[in-house]
């Protein structure tokens, strides 16, 4: 399979036509080999417009949706970014081209190992991949200018909120009246302002599920 040609087609048919106008995101997604982050048996599906399974509970976001969410984060070259539920590291690789540094976390050791190897193979040196509880973040590396969560968040943890820098952004997807919506939180004077941006169907992260409510 001609992956370079498929990559160009992905950018031209999935990313550009879906309101992704940030040239840096377009450029980086046109250069990072997504197939390097996809399990070997699924590699020929690398550039399809779909979420790809990485494990029983983790999915790689589709290229179009990932590009839209990264654009929403408005990442600057000086930003320190926390990438939550990083999987095999593809999003971290894209974000690394925009940010100053990235801390990418997952709670599945095999994915952490795969992400570390894939990023090292591409000589992407401004990403540290760590094994960590997704809801707890990495307090010792905080504060973060951007916290980017790769999946649906039913309830945001206080730990992650506390690790956001003043003026920083949290980007995630939340369920709103039965529809998944991309949301950006911005921290100003210690308070978080929430803004809904666009509908975005992405995989659910069980680690951020709301506790069941019981009633008599």
UniProtKB/TrEMBL annotation:
<dbReference type="InterPro" id="IPR000682">
    <property type="entry name" value="PCMT"/>
</dbReference>
<dbReference type="InterPro" id="IPR029063">
    <property type="entry name" value="SAM-dependent_MTases_sf"/>
</dbReference>
<protein>
    <recommendedName>
        <fullName>Protein-L-isoaspartate O-methyltransferase</fullName>
    </recommendedName>
</protein>
<comment type="similarity">
    <text>Belongs to the methyltransferase superfamily. L-isoaspartyl/D-aspartyl protein methyltransferase family.</text>
</comment>
<dbReference type="Pfam" id="PF01135">
    <property type="entry name" value="PCMT"/>
</dbReference>
